């Protein structure tokens, strides 16, 4: 994996996001534009990023009736983002419609992934609030991943803890994108199912989404580098191991 870190641009406007990106001094990290920034700036900001060669994950987590999701994807697909997502809980038909919308827009290269359960959700919330009592979190996330795979999607958003089970069920090439990443000495914030870059690498995660650990740091490029290094160390050790 060339670059496993996706930096979440969780800023209130494009000006702040651009200032932040300037601190990377010529490096163009894979960036994630979520609801806050997209609602503030719209498609023009995505075009600004693409013109400057930033790989972009558009994290709008679509969840609506299949026709609406199809039509929305047909619009968003024209922007040329590298990754985009829907909620798996919208169901198989909705996920298939998302894929069709993307293909009909001509976005054949864009990876379409499904959010399984948010990394801020824990077992108690799953059973007491969402009333999903038939399965535990791991089973639920793995089941959603299986549905996403059957619907023709490229991967899922999940926590690092579920990656092994998802890869066993959906195959190794099915992408896993994991938020909730923290260096061992960092604040957890509102995330529940967290993991360090070291653990994420050991667990076979494909991409780590990192927001506040980088964006709220005094030296973002430095933390970004530390996360990549922690990840690479594990992979280099694995490659050296005679068992790997
Ligand atoms: O600041 P932090 O590293 O917790 O940011 C994580 C990012 O990943 C946020 O932009 C959040 O919206 C996103 N995300 C998540 N859990 C998911 C899907 C997306 O935290 N399941």
Automatic annotation (TrEMBL):
UniProt keyword list: Decarboxylase, Lyase, Pyrimidine biosynthesis
A Pfam family matched in the record: OMPdecase
Active site: 61 (proton donor)
Residue ranges constituting the Orotidine 5'-phosphate decarboxylase domain according to the UniProt record: 4-227
InterPro entries on file: Aldolase_TIM, OMPdecase, OMPdecase_AS, OMPdecase_bac, OMPdeCOase_dom, RibuloseP-bd_barrel
Highest taxon of the lineage: Bacteria
Enzyme class, spelled out: lyase
EC number annotated for this UniProt entry: 4.1.1.23
Gene3D superfamilies registered for this protein in UniProt: Aldolase class I
Catalysis: reaction(s): orotidine 5'-phosphate + H(+) = UMP + CO2
Pathway annotation: Pyrimidine metabolism; UMP biosynthesis via de novo pathway; UMP from orotate: step 2/2
Any GO molecular function: orotidine-5'-phosphate decarboxylase activity
Binding site for substrate: 10, 32, 59-68, 119, 182, 191, 211-212
Keyword Magnesium belongs to the record: no
Subunit structure: Homodimer.
Role according to the record: Catalyzes the decarboxylation of orotidine 5'-monophosphate (OMP) to uridine 5'-monophosphate (UMP).
Family affiliation: Belongs to the OMP decarboxylase family. Type 1 subfamily.
Protein name: Orotidine 5'-phosphate decarboxylase
Provenance organism: Fictibacillus barbaricus
Gene: pyrF
């Amino acid at each position: 994996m060339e670059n496993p870190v996706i930096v979440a641009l969780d800023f209130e406007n494009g000006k702040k996001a651009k200032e932040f990106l300037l601190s990377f001094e010529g490096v163009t990290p894979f960036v994630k534009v979520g609801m806050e920034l997209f609602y503030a700036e719209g498609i023009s900001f995505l075009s600004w990023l693409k013109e400057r060669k930033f790989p972009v994950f558009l994290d709008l987590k679509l969840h609506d009736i299949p026709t609406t999701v199809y039509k929305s994807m047909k619009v968003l697909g024209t922007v040329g983002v590298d990754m985009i997502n829907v909620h798996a809980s919208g169901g198989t038909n909705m996920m298939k419609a998302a894929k069709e919308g993307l293909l009909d827009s001509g976005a054949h290269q864009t990876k379409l992934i499904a959010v399984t359960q948010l990394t801020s959700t824990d077992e108690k919330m799953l059973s007491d609030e969402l009333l999903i009592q038939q399965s535990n979190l791991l089973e639920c996330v793995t089941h959603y991943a299986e549905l996403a795979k059957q619907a023709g999607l490229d991967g899922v958003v999940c926590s690092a803890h579920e990656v092994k089970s998802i890869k066993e069920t959906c195959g190794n090439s099915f992408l896993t994108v994991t938020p909730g990443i923290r260096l061992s000495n960092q604040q957890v914030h509102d995330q529940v199912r967290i993991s360090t870059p070291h653990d994420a690498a050991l667990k076979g995660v494909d991409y780590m989404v990192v927001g506040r650990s980088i964006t709220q740091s005094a030296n973002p490029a430095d933390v970004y580098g530390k996360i990549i290094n922690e990840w690479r160390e594990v992979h280099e050790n694995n490659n050296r191991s005679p068992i790997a």
